[in-house]
């Protein structure tokens, strides 16, 4: 079978979590590639980082794309998950970017800032992030989901597949379990977000993801 896509990333989920889910959702054949000698291979990448997607073209050429958000949008478009008009696409991007804000603010506090801040400072920053950003923003998300009878973020017929899912839904379902909400985001407080997560957890791409690198984030 000819391979349509290849994703270069390390052997864990990290920034490849969404690209891998979306690759499964394109219905095309694809493969992971793990760097053998990253220090060498780094120089060959568009911006010296991974993930990097290669899309093998019919004429034998390669389309190479870096930056996880660009990769996610490209693959979501290929999978029919970016809506069917400019407004749907914009709303899908809006919710997707909003999850992006949480990721961008949360992970540095969990990893990079450990060297610069004391444990108390990190706790304080994390609690501010939770109270002022994560919980109130996810409350808005839950309210938006509540308004849509489909249970997805963006109206009807946003997808060529029968279930109307979009990049925003995939990002939400993949992201929801990753953060420590200290019991402030639960099935009771944010029922629509949890219902979306539960619905997508049964999707075969999510099942395949679960089986990949168990126990690693
Ligand atoms: N803005 C980039 C960040 C990519 C990034 O930082 N990737 C890390 C892995 S998560 C990486 O390439 N680390 C190895 C290195 O920089 O040498 C994106 O979203 O794709």
UniProtKB/TrEMBL annotation:
Q: Which residues form the GST N-terminal domain?
A: 3-83
Instruction: State a single Gene Ontology molecular function.
Output: glutathione transferase activity
Give the top-rank taxon of the lineage listed in the UniProt record for this protein. Eukaryota
Looking at the record, the residues that make up the GST C-terminal domain are: 85-217
Q: What GO terms describe the biological role, i.e. biological process, of this protein?
A: glutathione metabolic process
Give the matching Pfam families: GST_C_3 (PF14497)
Question: Which InterPro entries does the UniProt entry name for this protein?
Answer: Glutathione-S-Trfase_C-like, Glutathione-S-Trfase_C_sf, Glutathione_S-Trfase, Glutathione_S-Trfase_N, GST_C, GST_superfamily, Thioredoxin-like_sf
The record's Gene3D superfamilies line, in alphabetical order, gives: 1.20.1050.10, Glutaredoxin
Q: What is this protein called?
A: Glutathione S-transferase
Q: Per the UniProt entry, what species is this protein from, by scientific name? A: Mortierella isabellina (Filamentous fungus)
């Amino acid at each position: 079978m000819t391979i349509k896509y290849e994703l270069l990333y390390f052997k864990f989920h990290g920034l490849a979590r969404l690209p891998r889910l979306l690759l499964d959702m394109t219905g095309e054949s694809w493969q992971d590639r793990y760097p053998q000698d990253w220090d060498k291979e780094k120089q060959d990448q568009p911006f010296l980082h991974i993930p990097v997607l290669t899309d093998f073209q019919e004429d034998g050429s390669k389309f190479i794309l870096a930056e996880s958000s660009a990769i996610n949008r490209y693959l979501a478009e290929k999978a029919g998950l970016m809506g069917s008009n400019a407004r749907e696409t914009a709303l899908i991007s809006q919710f997707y970017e909003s999850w992006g804000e949480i990721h961008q603010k949360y992970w540095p506090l969990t990893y990079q800032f450990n060297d610069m801040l004391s444990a108390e400072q990190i706790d304080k920053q994390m609690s501010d992030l939770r109270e002022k950003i994560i919980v109130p923003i996810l409350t808005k998300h839950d309210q938006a989901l509540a308004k849509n009878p489909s249970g997805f973020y963006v109206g009807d017929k946003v997808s060529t597949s029968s279930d109307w899912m979009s990049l925003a839904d995939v990002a939400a379902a993949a992201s929801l379990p990753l953060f420590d909400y200290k019991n402030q985001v639960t099935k009771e407080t944010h029922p629509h977000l949890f219902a979306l997560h539960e619905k997508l957890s049964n999707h075969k791409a999510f099942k395949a993801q679960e089986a990949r690198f168990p126990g690693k984030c």
